Amino acid sequence: MANQDQVQEHRIDQFSVGPGARADNWRFLVDAAKAWSEGSGSRNRFDALFAQLEVTEEYHGYPGLRLMAALKEAAASGDASATAALATRILQSLQTRSFRQHANDWDIHDDGERALTDLLPPSLGRTESHRPYFEVLIVTGVAATNWPNLCAEWRRLRRPLDTFVYEPVFVGSFEDAFCATMINPDIAAVIINEGFAQKSRHDAPVLRTLTASIEPLGTTDSALRLAHTLKRVRPELDLYLMSNRNVEQLAGNPEADVLRRIFYSVEELLELHLAILEGVQDRFETPFFDNLKKYAQRPIGTFHALPIARGKSVFRSDWIRDMGEFYGMNLFLAESSATTGGLDSLLEPTGNIKKAQEKAARAFGADHVFFVTNGTSTSNKMAVQALIGPGDIVIVDRNCHKSHHYGMVLAGAQPLYVEAFPMTEYSMYGAVPLKTIKQALLNLKSENRLDRVKMIDLTNCTFDGHIYNTRRVMEECLAIKPDLIFLWDEAWFGFARFSPFLRPRTAMGAANDIEAWIHDPKSVQAYEKQRAGLGDNPSDDLLLRTRLIPDPRLVRLRVYQTNSTHKSMSALRQGSMLFVKDVEFHSVEQQFKEAVFTHASTSPNQQLIGSLDVARRQMELEGFGLVANAIEIAFAIRQAVAANPLISKYFSILGADKMVPAEYRESGFVDFLAPGANWAIARRSLQEDEFCLDPTRMTLVCGTAGFDGTQFKGILANRYGIQVNKTSRNSVLFQSNINNTRSDVANLIRVLAEISGEIDRTLSQGGANARKTFDARVKSLMTDVPDLPNFSRFHDGFRGDAGEKTNEGDIRSGFYAAYDAAGCEYIRLADAEIDRRLKSGPELVSASFVIPYPPGFPIMVPGQVITQETIDFMRKLDVKEIHGYDATEGLKLVRPEALAKRGERHSRAHGIKAAAE
Ligand SMILES: Cc1ncc(COP(=O)(O)O)c(C=O)c1O
Hints:
Layout: H1 19-38, H2 43-57, H3 64-76, H4 80-96, E1 133-139, H5 147-156, E2 165-171, H6 174-183, E3 187-193, H7 205-211, H8 219-233, E4 238-243, H9 247-251, E5 261-264, H10 269-284, H11 287-297, H12 312-315, H13 321-327, H14 329-333, H15 352-364, E6 368-372, H16 375-387, E7 393-397, H17 402-411, E8 414-418, E9 422-423, E10 428-429, H18 434-446, E11 453-459, E12 466-468, H19 470-480, E13 485-489, H20 507-518, H21 521-534, H22 540-545, E14 558-563, H23 565-568, E15 576-582, H24 585-599, H25 606-643, H26 647-650, E16 652-653, H27 656-659, H28 679-688, E17 691-693, E18 697-701, H29 709-720, E19 726-727, E20 731-735, H30 742-765, H31 767-783, H32 811-817, E21 824-827, H33 832-840, E22 851-853, H34 868-876, E23 881-883, E24 891-894, H35 896-916
Parallel strand pairs: 1-2, 1-3, 3-4, 4-5, 7-8, 7-11, 11-13, 13-14
Antiparallel strand pairs: 6-15, 9-10, 12-17, 14-15, 16-18, 18-20, 19-20, 21-24, 22-23
Helix pairs in contact: 1-2, 1-4, 2-3, 3-4, 6-8, 11-25, 15-25, 16-17, 16-24, 17-32, 18-19, 19-20, 25-30, 30-31
The structure holds pyridoxal-5'-phosphate (PLP).
Pyridoxal-5'-phosphate binds next to helix 16.
């Protein structure tokens, strides 16, 4: 966060400085103006701050050209109190966002009073509805001196009938257009007039490191290039091109696809105005939610189930009326078990749910979307069921969410578990190295079983924030098997679509990039060149070392993504989406229908579906700014913890360098907060590195303060009302999201400072003993950590027809072995029998999933052979919640006799197979 005392240099290309920093800068300016007017400051300081701020304020509609000029004039005339008054008024308007509604805010003279109700959510303050506000970027070659007149002209187009109100923002160059799009989250549409300049008159050294190699183009090409660039940064924006040339020809150019409309010259100003409003209306419309609201207002007699619908039994009751009062009437009016009357069926959508899903597909860059109302747990099971049949091999991260493992059981798939890199010191896993995945594929290939592997199933980003290089993973795997399906569990990462930095590393972002690459003629050449270089029979070693290029002519791009919309966007709990980008979707569409029928409730909650629709609307209209804010807040927390001398004595937040081993940071990226880091460096890391860290996921090490994760989570929740995401033995995970504000940061930092202060006092007042106890506790938490056990193997009785080199297994038979009570036994963890069996056999084979929380990955899956490492890990675990394990009964194991029977069957099956071969 900015420091009040410094006049920091502002550049137009400082994109990691988000909306919060802008507010800070205005606050500093107001403070400087007040100090000047009170005699404790100077005009010089005000001028210096103003000159810095002025640069990027050009990209915002408010305060705009007139108010900025007025402020500058007031200062130039030496009128300190007028300067302070105007600056204060602008700041207040920005803070309350009242300029969006109040015309007076735009006037140079106003009383400066702002109502408190402007700060409150609408339901607590003003009740009349208001027109949403946005800004339109106009890129033009017209001289800047004419912009105020043009601005006035645009404003004259406003009509009381308009659903929205917008303000134009003018820029004169490619660079300024790019920077404005990155900096101003209110921009919802861009008008590109041909004839703009290339370079900004401001300095943009970081931006120019990227644009230096770009060659100058002709007018139209330059406009199209700008359109493509802006679309890449913010795909949700509507782009309009104003041209005086051959617009018919331009309109037929496939490159012009990124434009919503092309207009011939400025004659069509009113048309353009209407087109802009229509474009925003298209994003604003929420087909299902809009209809649900209408439905709630109709008088409807219900003679079917769901008595709660319409709320009569609630509001007339003496006994449950409080429920009605608590939730409000609309919840009941908007409830129905009907799929008619303007509503639609989630199980077989043909009406407004279908339309809502189509809009979500557009927003998230997918071809199809399924709305799911039972969390991503269900989305994952649906995807696995629809895409995988019995016996299909799936390469899957063992550390993935349990829904995938259960999905494999249901589908009868053979999971081939691959291991993420361990982060033993923090009792957590990273992500699965690409080399491991390629090795698994090459092993299968060497045994002629590549045809059996259908899918790669990975978590992006992981719980702790490891982001895959999704594009690279898919390209390299497709180079080995061109029809592989990818299932990316992006439960936590749905928001990333709306960050230009993170989007390329999402499943859909990468899939779209790969799709474009497939159609680029240069790709075949690149592939052929690599193939010639590798020769006819490249060794595994060479293939593992090479960044493989797939054959674009053979690739069948099949990508699926699931995300918990409720985890990172404004959907109600359990709202989830399943995205499809699959050229073979037609061949599995029926299977998806079956998967929906299998998993979706026949009574899906209307509010959940409505909230998915609305979450999409929000992200398309303000997701960019909200995500930028979440990232900025994460940086602020990271910076505050590192910079605070008291807090940093006991706590630290792990940077990218700590979370991602150097071998996976090929670009040399260290951390977002490292000296000299800027967005161009971060972007390179995001483009090249095998793994990156999602900055919004912050692992706070608390073991160094003498707390284990669970204990610290309890303290934060019970004493301070702060909830955290997950814990490990010595850390807790904080997550910033689109809901966080600067006040949340301040509160967290205050709490950490208070706790650090307490530790300090206890240690300084407790004498040598207190210090000794503290050090011992820290040592135990930070160094006495159990090794993370790898997946061992499936017992031979559960290996199905697995090959020699890979460890896939028939998890479904393992799972159902537990249903045979006589074939199972229980042994307590502390029982010496465990050690005896580990030493001398017979082997211990788990009959169930055992999933401790934390860390949350299955340390045993059904049919898995239990090893000494697994037992050591379990015995050292100090967590209370272990799913699938009852401490009083002990470990549930498949009895050796039952295994022997399975073993015989297995040998017979294999014998027969071998004989047949
Ligand atoms: C990686 C991952 N996938 C899926 C899920 C399940 O999502 P939901 O809670 O929406 O069912 C979770 C939940 O924590 C998760 O962490």
